[in-house]
Amino acid sequence: MFVDGINYLLSLSFPAFFAMFWHFFLLELPRFVIAGIAVCVATMVRRRSVVPGLPLVRPRISVLLPGHNEAENLPRAIMSMREQTIPPDQIVVVDDGSTDDSVAVATAMQKDGLIDVVRSTQVRGGKSAAANLGLAECSGDIVIIADADTTYDCDAFEKLIAAFNDPKIGAVAGNLGVRNPDISLATRWQAIQYQISIGLGRQVSDMLGVLFIVSGAFGAFRRQALEQVGGWSVGPGEDAELTNKIRRAGWQVQFAPEAWCLTDVPETFAQLARQRLRWDRSLVRMRWRRFRVFLDPTDAQFRLSNALGTIDILFFQALLSLSFVIYLIWLFDVYGSFGWIIAVVNLLAYSLFGIAGFAMARIAAPNARVAGLWPYVLGYGVFNSLFLRFVRLVACFDELIFRRSFDDNYVPRRVRHAARRSRVDN
């Protein structure tokens, strides 16, 4: 039956074939083509309008590292910072009410001259509270936000701050890779996704002027921009919200593809699903509830790039997941059991596009660490098109109906309730 089905598909005229696979041709292919064009441009002109090297006047650099129960990870992260070709002028560590030895470890490293400032919230207040407490201690013109479970290439800070040659730049996003890809199939597929969605995807967004996320694991901010927008708001999703506020304030945001840091990712699919449910709920919360003003042309701060970026995120990350489910329902309703063959062909197409996307990502943001993942790339297309889309769809409905992000334990309950009473997150 399968062979007969393939022969039938091959016998179709192009209009009939197009009508059968409309979702792929109309909604999936255009973005892939845009990414391909962007890779070609990025290969010929590695960075647009950025003077290579350090700013003419080297800015003072502060690293801000908020964390909760990071005693085990902290020494490795600090040593990675101290080994930079452009070491930071100041490292500020803020403990967010940890129950382990984080404060003791940080204090010992401070005595050794490896950390400059150690502060603690005493009780857990969430990452945003810790980051804002630390920001008050930062003396640098540029503030690099970091996580304790990340490490950095030795020239990562140098590559990251180069963009601040341009006085219009308010924030720069670093590149993220997976440090633990060999643990499981889940970590391998995440390593591939990070290479494609961050190494390639954010480079495309940057080139189009619609970059809306500077990761809290590795990003740099002009302190003036941080102070102008009031720092970090209550999470989850505080990284995206801060980036949105900076863009709305008129600053530009850029991506530094050669500034690499490595982070640990969830090792099982269950852990991954829980992480992505939190991330994707924040997508709805940030884009629709908090920043739908980006779509209002009557707003005094309206910018076309902000509107287009918001539409891009809502469509390709949220609505595309829903449209794929609608397409599958339509497929089996119209074609019955033959729909299984069409679905398999769709998955094969996604797998091939996954291979092509990974190849483009390797060109756009070379990373030797993922070279051994080629055998897993074929299955990545299925993982991305089915597993991650299903999780995203569940998260979107969960947030729209139940506002589940407001009950996320990522932020302590008392902080969430205080934020809701003050309407900070509504």
From TrEMBL:
TM annotation in the entry: 313-332, 338-361, 373-395
Keywords noted in UniProt: Glycosyltransferase, Membrane, Transferase, Transmembrane, Transmembrane helix
Gene Ontology molecular function: glycosyltransferase activity
All copies of domain Glycosyltransferase 2-like, residue ranges: 62-229
A Pfam family matched in the record: Glycos_transf_2
Keyword Membrane: yes
Family of this protein: Belongs to the glycosyltransferase 2 family.
Annotated protein name in UniProt: Glycosyltransferase, catalytic subunit of cellulose synthase and poly-beta-1,6-N-acetylglucosamine synthase
